[in-house]
Amino acid sequence: MLHISNTVQIADWEIELSAIRAQGAGGQNVNKVSSAIHLRFDIHRSSLPASYKQRLLQLSDRRISKDGVIVIKAQKFRTQEKNREDALDRLRELLSSAGVRKKPRRPTRPTRSSQKRRMDSKNKHGKTKILRGKVGPGDL
Q1: Of the CATH numbers 3.30.160.20, 3.30.450.40, 3.30.1360.70, 3.40.50.80, which one belongs to the domain with range 2-99?
Q2: Which runs of consecutive H residues, i.e. helices, occur in the chain?
């Protein structure tokens, strides 16, 4: 059982874990030991609440396929057990981030004093640029 929040849990049968060989350098060990973990989690078939499913499917995350399947490959550690824990932690983190509802933005207007400060700054900058101009015979 994977606990996402106080009210949301995922059963073990919903998460498909398979051991695969890790990529990259590692000598002879990498060629004969399947220490990496390939995690697959189908969003549509899961027992997650509808709000979680909707937010997950709207995320633009490369780990979520077009079919709504989360694929996580964990190969950071040398042992299969640590990679399994890493994959489950990354899944938990992704699902808990989908559970957080963003606060809606309330449009605000700038205050009158901030508008005045902005305009004063622009006028001052413009006057500085005018002073940089060429000096003519009538300007002396």
Answers
A1: 3.30.160.20
A2: 28-32, 50-58, 80-99, 112-131
